[in-house]
Amino acid sequence: MRAVEQNRLMTGDRLARASLRLDAIYCVALGILVGIAAPFATNPVGLPVVLLVGTGIATALWGVYVWRASRAQPLRTSTRLVMIANIVASAGLAVTGLFAGTTVLALAAGVLAIDIAAFAVSQGIALRRMQRASA
């Protein structure tokens, strides 16, 4: 029964790679979107264009790093590093949402915090599965 159960589930390595790659695509797409939308978003979110463009560039570059991390060995180390970064980013966005000066920024930060937390959870599950497989 245990072998059948494991065959139905994605292995830790496969889940980690899938999660990291999806995370990378999300970051690059979001970074590009934020960078392009910065001139139009500055008033609704109440942040300067330069800050929004910088955030977009940093997010896209982080996505490139995460994509490379999905191919790195040992995968466990890369996954753990990205998961920790996602936890920190999610917490930072949640706090930003709480103290945001505009409703649009509060909602955007809250939604992004949830999205990023979901990536951290999937990476944590992958790490747990990798740990069980090596035990």
Description:
The chain is elongated, with a radius of gyration of 17 Å. It is an all-alpha fold. Helix 4 packs antiparallel against helix 5 (103-134). 88% of the residues lie in helices and 0% in strands. It has 5 helices and no strands. The relative contact order is 0.17. The two termini are 18 Å apart.
Number of strands: 0
Beta percentage is: under 5%
Query: How many individual helices?
Result: 5
Task: Let me know the average pLDDT.
Answer: 92
Q: Decide which structural class fits the backbone.
A: mainly alpha
Q: What is the CA-based Rg, rounded?
A: 17 Å
Amino- and carboxy-terminal Cα gap: 18 Å
Identify low-pLDDT runs: none
What is the subunit organization of this protein? single chain
The profile of the biggest β sheet is: none
| Principal-axis shape | elongated
Integer tally of domains: 1
What is the H/E string? Answer: HHHHH
DSSP helix fraction: over 70%
Could you give a short description of this structure?
With 135 residues, the chain is mainly alpha-helical. It has 5 helices and no strands.
Keywords:
135 residues; mainly alpha; 88% helix; elongated
